[in-house]
Amino acid sequence: MNLITKNTFAFLALMLLFIPQSFAQEPSIYALMETEKAIDFQENYPDDVLILSSTSEQTAVMLSESITHAIRESVTTHGPGYIYKASKAEALAALEAASRPTSELEYTITEDVFVNACLDLVDPDAIETTILELQDYGTRYHTKPQAEQSVLDTQAKWDALIAATGRTDISTRIYNHVATPMPSLILTIEGASSPDEFVIIGGHIDSTSWNNDDAPGADDNASGIASLTEIIRVLLANEFVPQRTVEVMAYAAEEIGLVGSGEIAAEYAQNGVDVMAFVQFDMTGYKGSAEDIYIAQDTYTSSGLNTYLTELVDHYNSSGDHVFTYGFTACGYACSDHASWANNGYHASFPFEAAFDDSNPNIHSPFDVYSFFNTPNHAAKFAKLGLEFVIEGAKTETLSVPNFTASSLITYVRNKTLYFELKNTTTEINKIAIYNISGQQVVSALFRDQPGALNLQSLASGFYIAQFEMENNRTITKKIVLN
Description:
Blueprint: H1 2-16, H2 21-25, E1 28-34, H3 35-44, E2 49-54, E3 58-64, H4 65-74, E4 83-85, H5 88-93, H6 112-119, H7 124-135, H8 145-165, E5 170-175, E6 184-189, E7 194-204, H9 218-237, E8 244-251, H10 259-270, E9 274-280, E10 293-297, H11 303-316, E11 326-330, H12 338-343, E12 348-349, E13 351-352, H13 370-373, H14 377-394, E14 409-414, E15 417-422, E16 429-435, E17 441-446, E18 452-455, E19 462-470, E20 475-482
Parallel strand pairs: 7-8, 7-9, 9-12, 10-11
Antiparallel strand pairs: 1-3, 1-4, 2-3, 5-6, 6-8, 10-13, 14-15, 15-18, 16-17, 16-19, 19-20
Helix pairs in contact: 6-14, 7-9, 8-9, 9-14
């Protein structure tokens, strides 16, 4: 035993001579990097970067904690510049390319009526409120107590929206991580007819700065979380019941190597979860380029899903009240959480606030505050795109037209007049909107008195959708036929 022990210690002492000194002085981190960048950093910082194995595109490395900050600051576009891995074994295994899933969205556009009704409800002021709430934590750096609190408070906000619906098919859950004390948050709307097929949107809720006690992260990424929260609010206000399961995710610790999304996506892949598409919302607040929304094109995005997003904009946003434009941009290595899903074999896309060279110059600093862009209107456009993607991707139940009518609302049509009355409730109707089969609003009227009647003599005979907006901001939608 003594001989083995002495030999073992002698071997370890010899090995320490070949380990860069920085690793003996501070914690080490396993990660993946772009191969060219890994080689460059290893040459310039030999005591802080140890190359483990490489392919032509990616390299598994061991990094000192201090060099991770330099890597992040060297990124010219967006993101941490590396992908965190929990162990050497995970880093080496991650070099193997993931196979693409067999399932993929059919990329159809069929939900005009419901989508247009939802677009009309997007409220920029609600987006502004959420951005300011998240900014007010001062920092959401993943190791700070404010980071966890921001997630718990966001869960409470989402839970309040769910509670207002009285539904049991919608829930939230906290996802605790291995590599960070900060949790992630997941909201789930169960699919009514295809619950094992998932459509997911997400964005990171953490922030970073050169002073991590002062990391307000208003644009990066309170703006994305605000867009996601508004998507949730509108879907629930319109009583959205999807065919496929929809999930909305707020990720922990993106800024230190896509940690939150990486653990979740890996677990979903390991469990065989059929994620048909994922779209990332990371920085939606600052309009730095001529076009409104820029679709990132990189090895982590799906060309089919990218094209689908542009088709949605062409279909719903080429004119009218909700018009906005799009372009394309280049994204750096693993620049946001969509890379976690792509690395696990799923189809992913990343619409961004500007061309990357024109994006918010104040991110990752104490100056990433709301007053720099000072308007929620840009982030509202991303909420609209997200609504279009979720509704068209997951599809509405019951012939693609919502008919989730509360039993208290009585309606009928006679001689092209819509009669209506609310029974057994103190809630009043504020507004009625009529949509044609193309999703265009053709009639809008304010109502306070009931029972009431709405004259529709000006409309041609045919099929329409009547949407009743209540004083509590909930809506009831009914199909009507004019003869």
